[in-house]
Design goal:
Elements: H1 2-19, H2 39-53, H3 68-82, H4 93-108, H5 115-120, H6 128-141, H7 148-166, E1 187-194, E2 199-205, H8 207-214, E3 226-236, E4 242-255, E5 266-272, E6 277-278, H9 285-293
The protein binds heme C (2 copies).
Length: 309
């Protein structure tokens, strides 16, 4: 028995040693255009996120040891794929802003930095103060309308012009919400893309919503706040350049805690395809919206910008 243990132990040691030689390459790739942000904002992101979301990964000695290295290397590879601050110049201004929103959302929800990593790497933790610094910076950027929205609008206008020819009257959803063509002139407050279904989304807020963001009155959102979320197919070429494809749908959430009391104070509507076909079989289509938005009920059912004061 003793002999067996000895053999097993030696086998383990040999395995661990030989494992050290199997090292998926993380690669020290070049930094084409590093994130540009105020020094205090950048310092937080460099400290907490750059190990996995940049080409400037700083591995500690204990990260180099197998099997830890396998996991770290895989985090780095996946992390860079979704968000890489070292290729910041490759993103449009709107996408940059969108990625930063997503970053703050991920931190806020406790999803980033990866918990097991922050546990070991104490410098990767993001404190409440750090988060406040990031949010303040982003709120400051809400006013600048990024250049690319102009292009998005131009495309939308074409699509819209076609739809208008077919449809003189604005479509109405089954719960009585009229399509709001003006959303394209609202502020872009976030973008997101879903790898699972290959769409890109832009989230717009009307004046009431933007004012509420600025004044931190977003939980609950004031009556009159409206969000529009438009989705396009996502087209990606071999170089990884991403553009919007065909228009899929636009969704609205209109805040009015009296009129829409039955549906948690929000009027939900979805219009599909450039023809803007109202979604659903009957009024109960809103149950679907609500059930998916329910995890955000402490945030007034809104996903974007989940700021808790
Ligand atoms: C230990 C590595 C690691 C660290 C540190 C880390 N991330 Fe991540 N991050 C990942 C991985 C892996 C993914 C992709 C897997 C997933 O979606 O869960 C990811 C995904 C993301 C995404 C989604 C990107 C997309 O569009 O797919 C965002 C945003 C993000 N991280 C932000 C951050 C921020 C902000 C920080 C710093 C506060 C951070 N991460 C720190 C590994 C890391
Ligand atoms: C499968 C889950 C799911 C369903 C069903 C769903 N949503 Fe959402 N919705 C989301 C997520 C997640 C976001 C956050 C933005 C993103 O990731 O695209 C969102 C965001 C939104 C936004 C932007 C404001 C915000 O909360 O961030 C609007 C407007 C919206 N949804 C409307 C609707 C309407 C109208 C319906 C029903 C017709 C609906 N949603 C059904 C998951 C869902």
């Amino acid at each position: 028995m003793k002999k067996f243990m000895l053999i097993a132990a030696s086998a383990m040691i040999i395995l661990l040693i030989s494992l050290q030689f199997f090292r998926p390459e993380i690669g020290h790739l070049s930094v084409t255009g590093d994130l540009q942000a105020p020094a205090n904002v950048k310092a937080i992101l460099v400290r907490a996120c750059y190990d996995c979301h940049s080409n400037q990964t700083n591995l500690r000695w204990y990260d180099q040891i197998q099997p830890v290295y396998w996991q770290v290397a895989s985090h780095v590879r996946q992390g860079r794929k979704g968000l890489n601050f070292s290729n910041w110049d490759k993103l449009s201004p709107m996408d940059r802003k969108g990625k930063l929103w997503e970053a703050v959302n991920q931190i806020e929800q406790g999803a980033m930095p990866i918990k097991s990593y922050a546990f070991v790497h104490s410098d990767a933790r993001v404190s409440k103060q750090d988060l406040a610094v990031l949010k303040n910076y982003l709120i400051g950027t809400v006013h600048e309308t990024p250049n690319d929205t102009a292009k998005l609008r131009a495309r939308e206008k074409q699509v819209q012009a076609k739809a208008d020819q077919n449809q003189q009257k604005l479509p109405e959803s089954l719960n009585g919400i009229t399509y709001i063509p003006d959303y394209k002139n609202w502020q872009v407050i976030s973008t997101s893309d879903r790898f699972d279904n290959g769409t890109m989304r832009v989230i717009y807020g009307n004046d009431v919503a933007v004012k509420a963001i600025k004044e931190h009155h977003i939980n609950p959102w004031p009556n009159g706040a409206i969000f529009a979320k438009a989705a396009w197919d996502k087209l990606e070429d071999e170089q990884g350049n991403v553009t919007t494809g065909a228009f899929k749908q636009v969704e609205f959430m209109i805040k009015d805690d009296i009129k829409f009391r039955q549906t948690n104070g929000w009027g939900f509507a979805r219009f599909k395809t450039p023809k803007l076909k109202p979604y659903g079989k009957d009024v109960m289509f809103t149950a679907e919206c609500i059930s998916c938005h329910k995890p955000m009920k402490d945030n007034d059912f809104v996903f974007t910008f989940p700021i808790k004061n």
